Amino acid sequence: MAFDINNDRVSISSDVAVTIIGANTQFKGNITTHTPIYIDGYFEGTIDSDDVIEVSEQGSFKATINCSKLLLKGTGDGKVVCTDLMQFTSTGVFTGDITTSDLIVIEGSLLDGTCTMRSVRK
Q1: Cβ-count burial 74-85 (b if 16+ within 10 Å, e if not)
Q2: Residues 12-31: what's their mean pLDDT?
Q3: What pTM, to 2 d.p., does this model score?
């Protein structure tokens, strides 16, 4: 699996299990996983993952999230802790608190909240 920041996408090989919250799907609850998560619908709750989370342009969340990398193309609200990288594409909108080692904010995105940059490796 590769986190490709040049093309704003996560590439996942077919042999990797992936948690998907599909379009027109609303999920409320808690997720703990070691595999990538793709949110194309709406998620509310908590996510604890040591892998990549991608939120599509149509996807959104209101959550507390702990992960290694988060690619935000859609909207998010809450508290996010990324051990490696949080990246906003030009369509990404986030309200809340971010703690991350590295941050990429592309022109056109919106961050309304606080951002703490420090090593948060587990």
Answers
A1: bbbbbbbbbbbb
A2: 78
A3: 0.84
